[in-house]
Amino acid sequence: MITVWIILAVVVVLAIFVWATYNGLVKLNVRVQEAWSDITVQLKRRADLIPNLVEAVKGYAAHEKKVFQDVTEARSNVLDATNKGPAETAKAENMFEQALKSLFAVAEAYPQLRATENFQQLQAELVDTEDKIQAARRFYNGGVRDINTKIQQFPSNVVAAMFRFTNKEFFEVDDMASIEKPVEVKF
Predict the structure, then answer these.
(1) Residue 178: band (very low, low, confident or very high) from pLDDT cuts 50, 70, 90
(2) Which of 63, 142, 160, 170 is most buried when burial is the number of CB atoms within 10 A of its CB?
């Protein structure tokens, strides 16, 4: 009779462990999804600001069509990439940041543009949005770190494998060299 109670106790403890581990994995997974959603919201907010910024600069630097086309194309690529996951989004982000740097380099050549209230407001909003994107990326990567750790650690990896939880992708910058390279602006 004691053996039955011992076996029953072991089964109950195992069931509680599986239940708690599964719920922990689900909680971490939802946190990662929420963080990714935050990134996409901020990317959309920034993308909505860009046409206004381009229009403000266009009036002063109409002959810089290539820069405007690059920014518009990069903006579109970022919006498309958010549906393709962190790796594609990071790649599109890198291209977008380079195009945006070119736009600001053009704006630097026009002191009267930099002095306008509209341009200053757009620039301030863009800086604020960039800060929010960076915070959302850090939050997302923290969530990915937590769930990937739990998926890989024993004994929770057994439960993760049973319920087919998989590692998530970090939001990483692909090519540090291209980011550190100064932007070339040719007039």
Answers:
(1) very low
(2) 160
